[in-house]
Amino acid sequence: MLRSVSADERPNIIFIMDDDMGWADAGCYGSKEIKTPNIDALAAHGMRFTDAYSGCTVCAPARSTLMTGYHMGHTSVRGNSGGIPLRDDDITVAEVLKRAGYVTGGFGKWGLGEIDTEGAAEKQGFDEFFGYYHQIHAHNFFPSYLIKNGKHFPLPNNADLNDVKPKGPTVSPERQFSAHLIFDEMKQFIRANKDQHFFCYAPWTPPHADYHIPEDEPAWQLYKDKPWPNPAKVHAAFISMADRQLGETVTLLKELGIDKKTIVFFCSDNGASHRFDGILDSSGALTGFKRSMNEGGIRVPFIASWPGKIAPGSVSHLPIYFPDFLPTAAQLADATEYLPKDIDGISIVPTLLGKPQDQTERECLYWEWDRGGQAVRRGKWKLLRHKPNKPWELYNLDDDLSEKNDLSKKHPEVLKRLVAVANASHVDARPQIEPKKPEGKRYR
């Protein structure tokens, strides 16, 4: 593999991922309503990808593809219950970077293994992790506990909210808001490791439902008087809050003098959970949203910034997706020797560094999930079906980004070729036991 980054210029790597942010929810991707000055600035100072995709249309499988470098036909976690663990023999981004001498920290929603399973974050290469392990637990922003390094971290101010949802969109400032706590822990990790190489994985939980936010959160003040339904107002506020935290992260890197030694990625984990059409238009021109194999379910905002290395204001139309992060991070860290040999992702370092002539291009991108949907992208062509008993659909994304004109009957040869790719890309998952929840356990 081409060595685009030498051992002495290896960067710190920060990967920030919002949860259920739509492709068109940021200003630089077309949003007219949501204020995202820091996301827009990150794009202005780095590279914005127009054709970036999640590894799946839902949370846990998407994270599995991101961590392992395998697409959905090969990765371990393909269901979205939130408790299916990675396997002990899965090799994650954190494990590869740790072997290369990086300190590894995670802050947010893991979703790939509960405490005491082989998929728990501390058993998958993370030196520390603070947040949620089970994704159903992560639906509540005011839980009675979080997880810190494999152990319960009590939040006593939230104890009486464990089984009771707030009645309105806002919650008393006396409650402990997980998004603020998680971000504070992340900043402490960056400060503590400023003098060594680190990998900071930040799978933040907003703007995923439940739509409850502290009444004194500054981002809520931007939208509380809008004539929108409460979920739309909280969704917008969550994204503006994450935008502010992204800006604070970049400022912290500058204050510590490590901004030019750090590459920052920002994306969403899958499509928007709700389109909010006519209000926020979170999917933009794309058809579908989360849980769909249409573009609105899998295409995501994706930005990378590395001062002095990535050309400011650059835009890439290269189709990329989550399995590419593992080989990309490994090449950035000069750690490709620790990669599994058969992963599905490719490194996009040449594209990031403005060397498109050196970029390996894959033949196809592939998606599936356990409800039966499948999709393939090859160049301009997009193949999909929503269920095994549904017909295949074929679209030319160059001419039809909204996937309105099914060309399956007009191009049977293309259809046949891509169906063969879909069939060859799926390998039955090895049985994986999801641990039972303890009797009487409640996540809310």
In short:
It contains ten helices and 18 strands.
> Which secondary-structure class do the elements indicate?
alpha/beta
Average pLDDT, rounded to a whole number, is 94
Number of separate strands: 18
Helical coverage, percent range: 10-25%
Radius of gyration: 21 Å
Shape: globular
Distance between the termini: 47 Å
Beta-strand content: 15-25%
Number of helices: 10
Numbering strands along the chain, what is their spatial order in the largest sheet?
7-6-5-4-9-1-11-12-2-13
Sheet with most strands: 10 strands, mixed
Which consecutive residue ranges, at least 5 long each, have pLDDT under 50? 439-444
Could you characterize the architecture of this molecule?
Helix 4 packs parallel to helix 6 (230-255). It is globular and about 60 Å long. The longest helix has 26 residues, at 230-255. The protein is α/β, with parallel strands linked by helices. It has helices spanning 37-45, 59-68, 93-99, 178-192, 218-223, 230-255, 295-298, 325-332, 349-352, 412-425, and strands at residues 12-18, 47-49, 52-53, 103-109, 128-132, 145-148, 151-154, 170-171, 198-202, 213-214, 262-268, 302-305, 314-316, 320-321, 365-368, 374-378, 381-385, 393-396. Helices cover 23% and strands 17% of the residues. The strands form four sheets. The protein has a ten-stranded mixed sheet with strand order 7-6-5-4-9-1-11-12-2-13, with helices on both faces. The protein contains ten helices and 18 strands.
Features:
disordered C terminus, globular, 23% helix, alpha/beta, 4-stranded antiparallel beta sheet, 444 residues, 18 strands, 10 helices
